[in-house]
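Quick one: sequence plus 2-oxoglutaric acid SMILES, need structure tokens.
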Amino acid sequence: MTLDFPAGPAPAPFFGENRTATLIEDLATKGWAHATGALPGDLVTSLRDRLEVLFEEGELARARIGRGETETRANSIRQTEIAWLTGEHPAERQFLGGTEALRLEINRALFAGLFEFEAHFARYPAGGHYARHLDAFADRPRDRIVSLVAWLNADWQDGDGGELDVWTGPDDHGHPVATLAPRGGDLLLMMSETIPHAVRATAVPRLGLAGWFRVNPGVGGVLDPAA
Ligand SMILES: O=C(O)CCC(=O)C(=O)O
Ligand SMILES: [Fe+2]
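Reply:
Sure thing.
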């Protein structure tokens, strides 16, 4: 589900210019960028409440992986439940305003031609996980360019599990370059086609959002860090 933002006042960014510039520079040079305490506390709370209501009302659906996978194999790769953001709820709207500001900044800084953003809530049950993967699939036209993950967990403790492992590139099969706790308000950007990542098994329900800045596949934008 993608949204059009009507012309009007610029959407409110999550953070100031310097921090945005640092994040975009990390993204361009390393392929990923991590920001702690990036989302305002009240937004984290209202997004978490929204996800909990969706869960209680049975509005979350089992996330799928590639076409034609058996359920057993899918379970071994990814165990989580999702709901796409529609922008109908005020918290979703505020979040999408922040991602829209970020989209415009990434385009301005990197000439990335990012065209739209789509995102879903994700709830990993105890035992939930997501095996190492890239977010953009080689068998599809180029569309997901930059991934964004934002976590919503209130009081994450060491030992809760659910960390996100990040590697430097598809050929990197060594130790992860970063292992990030999914703390509420923290945010991660990654190049969708090149940064492998995995969610370790979580010991407690784990809440967050995952989204993708996309190019219009007909246009095929290029993110060129050297530009
Ligand atoms: O929840 C996370 O930390 C990452 C989720 C993820 O990699 C995905 O949904 O593609
Ligand atoms: Fe992912």
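The chain has four helices and twelve strands. Confidence is low (pLDDT under 50) at residues 223-227.
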